[in-house]
TrEMBL record:
<dbReference type="Pfam" id="PF00465">
    <property type="entry name" value="Fe-ADH"/>
</dbReference>
<dbReference type="InterPro" id="IPR044731">
    <property type="entry name" value="BDH-like"/>
</dbReference>
<dbReference type="GO" id="GO:1990362">
    <property type="term" value="F:butanol dehydrogenase (NAD+) activity"/>
</dbReference>
<dbReference type="InterPro" id="IPR056798">
    <property type="entry name" value="ADH_Fe_C"/>
</dbReference>
<dbReference type="GO" id="GO:0046872">
    <property type="term" value="F:metal ion binding"/>
</dbReference>
<feature type="domain" description="Alcohol dehydrogenase iron-type/glycerol dehydrogenase GldA">
    <location>
        <begin position="9"/>
        <end position="178"/>
    </location>
</feature>
<dbReference type="InterPro" id="IPR018211">
    <property type="entry name" value="ADH_Fe_CS"/>
</dbReference>
<feature type="domain" description="Fe-containing alcohol dehydrogenase-like C-terminal">
    <location>
        <begin position="191"/>
        <end position="389"/>
    </location>
</feature>
<dbReference type="GO" id="GO:0008106">
    <property type="term" value="F:alcohol dehydrogenase (NADP+) activity"/>
</dbReference>
<keyword id="KW-0560">Oxidoreductase</keyword>
<dbReference type="Pfam" id="PF25137">
    <property type="entry name" value="ADH_Fe_C"/>
</dbReference>
<dbReference type="GO" id="GO:0005829">
    <property type="term" value="C:cytosol"/>
</dbReference>
<dbReference type="GO" id="GO:1990002">
    <property type="term" value="F:methylglyoxal reductase (NADPH) (acetol producing) activity"/>
</dbReference>
<dbReference type="InterPro" id="IPR001670">
    <property type="entry name" value="ADH_Fe/GldA"/>
</dbReference>
<protein>
    <submittedName>
        <fullName>NADH-dependent butanol dehydrogenase A</fullName>
        <ecNumber>1.1.1.-</ecNumber>
    </submittedName>
</protein>
């Protein structure tokens, strides 16, 4: 077990009708004016946005609004939000939506609180020294951005999808009402469940000694999400299943499932980020499409870990043949992905990258062959290209 620090400053308000508390929670922050940041029509059609405005009005809190955030949130929208906040004197951002909206809000917060181009932080040219305070009303269980220290933005110039982490961007509060996810299409729900799973799986697969307590929390979280995603496949308005997945989303990406480890592998996320940047695919679906190929490519470098995952999460019978257990576990995970309608290859994802595109993806993922990715096995540009090729499928 390695030394670790665990910091989770976000206040969580969980349960039915909790969005009505938005105004009072923001009032506690002592702000002067709020930016209400959201996505597209669903928050309007459902009446959620009107309820949020009513809550702010009841507390006498002035606000400006900016909608139009899309999946794989765009830098142009971030820059639009920065200009709006500066013009309106905004000093607090309320994200009403899923991970894309929260990530966009964090980027806007960085851009307002720091001089210069906000993309510099995501391009790793500078380090942020502050961020506007942010609150979130979650409408999809997936990214875990409501409790994480990270955000991911896509720059349309070059189709680069990049992440940035700092403690400054952690939400002051997160309102989690599972009812707000009832209207999600099944594909979006299941894609979100994969994202939740992967945030813990990325931490679980590592090259460090591991902590029994952390492993137990991780394995329980994974089994719980898998069980409840199957329930939601048949009964999308099952409140308890929605609640289990929503809470797992927050716990999966707030650092809890990585305590005592080397931080985890994260190669699957890095591989998917480039797919998302180039092809604009749903993040969770992209992760499902690439994970099995990555796992088979690297599993021999940590057979004990893959065998434990197979036995404790996927209930594969114990065997002294760790390689067989590892491969059976990978196959079982892919079978699960298929059972919830998620792709297990790039072909099934609906994309067919050419050899030229694969080389471009690998070059971007390796930052022009200046970095490697992964912990289970360190992957260079050539390894990355191999995985993309193998993941194409038929």
């Amino acid at each position: 077990m390695l030394n670790f620090e665990y910091h989770t400053p976000t206040k969580v308000v969980f349960g039915k009708d909790t969005e009505s508390k938005a105004g009072s929670l923001i009032k506690e922050q002592g702000c002067r004016k709020v930016l209400v940041h959201y996505g597209s029509g669903s928050v309007i059609r459902s009446g959620l946005l009107d309820r949020v405005y009513a809550s702010l009005d009841a507390e006498g809190i002035p606000y400006a609004s900016l909608g139009g955030v899309v999946p794989n949130p765009r830098l142009t929208k971030v820059r639009e939000g920065i200009a709006l906040c500066q013009r309106e004197g905004v000093d607090f951002i309320l994200a009403v939506g899923g991970g894309s909206v929260i990530d966009s809000s964090k980027a806007i917060g960085y851009g307002v609180a720091n001089e210069g181009d906000v993309w510099d932080f995501y391009a790793r040219k500078r380090t942020a020294s502050a961020c506007l305070p942010i609150g979130a009303i979650l409408t999809i269980a997936a990214a875990g951005s409501e409790m994480s220290n990270s955000s991911v933005i896509t720059n349309e110039d070059g189709l680069k999808k990049r992440g940035y982490k700092s403690e400054y961007c952690r939400c002051r509060f997160a309102i989690l009402n599972p009812e707000l996810t009832y209207t999600l299409p099944d594909y979006q729900t299941q894609s979100g469940c994969v994202d939740v799973l992967m945030h813990t799986m990325e931490r679980y697969f590592n090259q460090s000694t591991n902590m029994e307590m952390t492993d137990g929390i991780s394995e329980t979280l994974l089994r719980t999400v898998m069980k409840n995603s199957l329930i939601l496949k048949k009964d999308p308005q099952n409140y308890d299943a929605r609640a289990e997945v929503m809470w797992a989303s927050s716990l999966s990406h707030n650092g809890l499932t990585g305590c005592g480890t080397d931080g985890g592998d994260w190669a699957s996320h890095q591989l998917e980020h480039e797919l998302g940047g180039m092809f604009d695919v749903a993040h969770g679906a992209g992760l499902a499409a690439i994970w099995g190929t990555w796992a088979r490519y690297v599993c021999k470098d940590r057979l004990d870990r893959f065998a434990k995952f197979a036995e404790n999460v996927l209930l594969i019978p114990h065997s002294e043949d760790l390689e067989q257990m590892a491969l059976l576990g990978i196959q079982a995970m892919e079978d699960y992905f298929r059972s919830i309608g998620m792709p297990t290859s790039l072909h099934k994802l609906g994309i067919a990258p050419s050899e030229e595109q694969i080389l471009e993806l690998a070059d971007k993922c390796s930052f022009g062959n200046t970095r490697t990715i992964g912990k289970v096995r360190e992957l260079n540009r050539e390894h990355i290209a191999d995985i993309y090729r193998l993941a194409r499928g038929i």
